[in-house]
Amino acid sequence: MDFDFSGPQPLFVQVADQLRAGIASGALPEGEQVPSTTEISRTYTINPATVLKGMTMLVDEGLLEKRRGLGMFVVPGAMERLRREERERFERDCVTDLVAEARRLGIGCQELIGLIEKGYRQ
Amino acid sequence: MGDRGLLRGVGIRGDGPARRTRRIAWMRERRWIAMGVVVAVVALVLDMLLAGVGHLLGGIVAPDHDMLYWLCSFTLATSAVASWSMFRFLICQGVSRRTIVTTQFAGNACIAAAVGAVLTVVAVVDIVVIRVPAWQIFVGRAEMIARYPYTLSWNPRYLSDEFGRTAVPMPRINWLVLTLAVFAFLMMAAMIGQTLGELAARLQVRGVLAALAVAFVVALLYGRLVPSGIRDTVDRLLAFMMGVYQRGVGMGRESAYSLWPLLGSMVVVSLLCGTASWLLIRRREVRPGIEAMA
Amino acid sequence: MSLSVTALTKQYGGSTALNRLSVTFEPNVIYGLFGRNGAGKSTLLGCIGNRLIPDTGRIVLDGEPLAECERLMARVYLANERLPWWDGVTLSAMLADCAHMDGRFDLGLARELVARFGLSPDAVYGRLSLGQRTMARMLIGLCMPVDYLFLDEPTTGLDPVNRRLMVEAVLEAYRRRSRTIVIATHEIAEFADILERAVIIDQGRRIDSFEVQDLCSHAALLVGPSDVVRAYAAGRGLRVLDVEHRGDSVSALVGMVSASEPEGGASASVAASSGFITGGLPDGVRARTPDLQTYMTRLVQRRH
């Protein structure tokens, strides 16, 4: 699992986002342990407290669970939930924005569907 | 994430932090004690060699100089340099100023005792192995005290008292008295040296040079600046501190020797110098310095 | 259970180095201590390390005064530009000295760091370069078995590669032995990722202290027309900390007026991710979170 912490957001948010992406993509399988705070801290030269803060965010969201003495594990069903949430977010944000942008440019509904179909063919 | 609890201060050797700082202070102090003893012994050996060679060559080198002056000077210098230079290392390693002062105090006593013992051994060897007349005077004043028959009394008899009896220096030295007398002299020198070292650290280089210049000028002009009556009193007082009772003036001056004023002076000087050193070190700091030199 | 400094004052001759400075260092946290040259960082650390005598104020460790108390001072170590040993000492001699003085000195880590920094154990300290001497002093500090470690300018004279190594070394030492490490440095960007909290000192006073990860809810940069930005800040009760003029528009650094907890503590993490400027920006005004270096630099500039 390779992380990329070069974004402008606070580091702990990036940690959470990267872990979330890993869970959604399946790179961090359900029921398995995620890399420990020590590992991530050492590999990416980040304060362990920051890593823990990001993981705690995911614990609060119910995506990770802490097993005493063992570490952080991906909650079963997390991947499915994340994918569902991302679909909802896609629909809520991207689709709405797309339609608004299309309206602004004067593209009608049928024309938009045609453009989307063309996009899928490529 | 590691243990977030408080760590107990127990070392591998099982001792706590306070003993650690005393151990650090003693590590450093031992070096200075060794240096002080080595310097004194080297000075002694050189001086004896010089006197011995001079004697062998027919008395070229005048024998009646006071070796004790040199020993005291070297001890004072070693002690001053020690108190001036030890401070920074010890403070940086977490030793308190109180421990620094008291450790050096103890170190001064060790140097004085060690050199006193060495001198006694040398004297014994000198008498047992080979008698070189020039070497008899190598401890000057201390030897006078050690040879005086009434040294241990509070009111020693003068060389010729009112009843016409005379007291003559003994042919044999009282070794205990010699060791104690040398110890007293060197202890005072070391304590004064410690205070001077603290003072030098306080004054910085410019202040030290200024103080030295003033001292030099005062020493030169002492005879002219101070009236003879006061000078006389000062002389008597200094002599008393060194265990020499004096009466009479000029050619009629007589001396009597005793150990107790000397030991008493040692205690008083040690207390005064110890207090002065403590007061000076209390405000002594290791200022942020220029990186490059330690 | 912490190291707290209360109303510390120190004057050098006519100038005031510390002006009733108060700060608290909690256990097992990595702090960044920032301030301009002459702000008082080194003086503060010198007082904590019992090297300087403050005029007034107290330094207390776990409830007891720290100065001159050897039992407590054994739990604190300051690594700055002064080397406690004589110049002619070799690295291996220094390490042996440290191990002898305290059996818990991490000799293994020390040797590892010596190798990692490319230093030779038999090198004489006085003959090393400026950067090498810094590395030697700092790695000794990192291996000291203390609860509160203070590093004063750990990257003096270091090239970029060694600066990176130093950052990693600090984190490595922290992982091996969890303790408070306070790093007084100008290399803010390089150390930012390993810091948990930051303390900013200016003219002998602490002007800010905060969690580095909460910077997004602590301050923001507003860019836009001067009057619009100022009105918005005034309307929202935001304190304007520094203003840069760029033609007609300004870049204003604003901060929360009070230091109290943002509302909704449980969801503060969510709010934090989007910054505390949660919508409602007037036209022409953009907001973003400053990075740590920008925040610190502009905070002490205080231009209006």
TrEMBL record, chain A:
<dbReference type="Pfam" id="PF00392">
    <property type="entry name" value="GntR"/>
</dbReference>
<keyword id="KW-0805">Transcription regulation</keyword>
<dbReference type="GO" id="GO:0003677">
    <property type="term" value="F:DNA binding"/>
</dbReference>
<dbReference type="InterPro" id="IPR036388">
    <property type="entry name" value="WH-like_DNA-bd_sf"/>
</dbReference>
<keyword id="KW-0804">Transcription</keyword>
<protein>
    <submittedName>
        <fullName>Transcriptional regulator</fullName>
    </submittedName>
</protein>
<dbReference type="InterPro" id="IPR000524">
    <property type="entry name" value="Tscrpt_reg_HTH_GntR"/>
</dbReference>
<feature type="domain" description="HTH gntR-type">
    <location>
        <begin position="9"/>
        <end position="77"/>
    </location>
</feature>
<keyword id="KW-0238">DNA-binding</keyword>
<dbReference type="InterPro" id="IPR036390">
    <property type="entry name" value="WH_DNA-bd_sf"/>
</dbReference>
<dbReference type="GO" id="GO:0003700">
    <property type="term" value="F:DNA-binding transcription factor activity"/>
</dbReference>
UniProtKB/TrEMBL annotation, chain B:
<keyword id="KW-0812">Transmembrane</keyword>
<keyword id="KW-1133">Transmembrane helix</keyword>
<feature type="transmembrane region" description="Helical">
    <location>
        <begin position="205"/>
        <end position="223"/>
    </location>
</feature>
<feature type="transmembrane region" description="Helical">
    <location>
        <begin position="32"/>
        <end position="61"/>
    </location>
</feature>
<feature type="transmembrane region" description="Helical">
    <location>
        <begin position="173"/>
        <end position="193"/>
    </location>
</feature>
<feature type="transmembrane region" description="Helical">
    <location>
        <begin position="67"/>
        <end position="87"/>
    </location>
</feature>
<feature type="transmembrane region" description="Helical">
    <location>
        <begin position="259"/>
        <end position="281"/>
    </location>
</feature>
<feature type="transmembrane region" description="Helical">
    <location>
        <begin position="108"/>
        <end position="130"/>
    </location>
</feature>
<keyword id="KW-0472">Membrane</keyword>
<protein>
    <submittedName>
        <fullName>Uncharacterized protein</fullName>
    </submittedName>
</protein>
From TrEMBL, chain C:
<dbReference type="InterPro" id="IPR027417">
    <property type="entry name" value="P-loop_NTPase"/>
</dbReference>
<dbReference type="InterPro" id="IPR017871">
    <property type="entry name" value="ABC_transporter-like_CS"/>
</dbReference>
<dbReference type="Pfam" id="PF00005">
    <property type="entry name" value="ABC_tran"/>
</dbReference>
<keyword id="KW-0067">ATP-binding</keyword>
<dbReference type="GO" id="GO:0016887">
    <property type="term" value="F:ATP hydrolysis activity"/>
</dbReference>
<keyword id="KW-0547">Nucleotide-binding</keyword>
<dbReference type="InterPro" id="IPR003439">
    <property type="entry name" value="ABC_transporter-like_ATP-bd"/>
</dbReference>
<keyword id="KW-0378">Hydrolase</keyword>
<dbReference type="InterPro" id="IPR003593">
    <property type="entry name" value="AAA+_ATPase"/>
</dbReference>
<protein>
    <submittedName>
        <fullName>ABC transporter, ATP-binding protein</fullName>
        <ecNumber>3.6.3.25</ecNumber>
    </submittedName>
</protein>
<feature type="domain" description="ABC transporter">
    <location>
        <begin position="3"/>
        <end position="228"/>
    </location>
</feature>
<dbReference type="GO" id="GO:0005524">
    <property type="term" value="F:ATP binding"/>
</dbReference>
